[in-house]
Amino acid sequence: MVYCMSDIHGYYEGYLEMLEIINLTDDDTLFVLGDVIDRGKGGIKILQDMMMRFNVIPILGNHEYMAINCMKFLNQEITEDSIKTLDEGIVRGLMEWQNVGGQVTIDEFHKLNAEEKQDIIDYIEEFSLFEEVTVKGKDYVMVHAGLVNFEPDRPLDDYHYYELLFKVPDYSRVYYENKYLVTGHLPTRCIQGNNYQDKIFKGNNHIAIDCGSACKGEGGRLGCICLDTGEEFYVDNKE
Fold this sequence. Notes:
By secondary structure, the protein is α/β, with parallel strands linked by helices.
């Protein structure tokens, strides 16, 4: 079976519960469409679990993109030379990352030893910007957010990271006539015209799977879909 999940945002217990619910086996594949970290306190633990599973395929989210250069700096030994490299770009990046919930990940990252920190950095740098898969004769394109400046014949590897990580698609528009676009990033409660809060959105060849796991105390939950069957799975955010 092929599954898709997105925007876990540090909800470690929910992530583990979802793996139990779908009964993920070595014969299955799970695509995780980014934003594993931040806001919740277990993002690093989720990454450490994911990297041990050969059948979990990570796709880069904007939170991982914002984190990676900061993590590289934070992994340096603090010396006069390293302080000199703390230029305006790094300071701005750290502040922007903290402003979107990165402080909990920074705190978790600091608790790791040097080898564990480097393992996390190396793992995130392996994340792909997109994935394509065919399941039971249906084609799927998976990205974290959207396809800015979309053209039907434009190759996916021609898109800049910003076009895939930060801007949401137009869910009223069919992008591919013969493919489904699977995305996260925007909680489905925010999709205009969607009457099903915190449920996976399907329409116009879109499958939107961010069900608001980061919306703690507001009814958010983690969503997952099986592409083989269309079955949907949910774990409420109890944190």
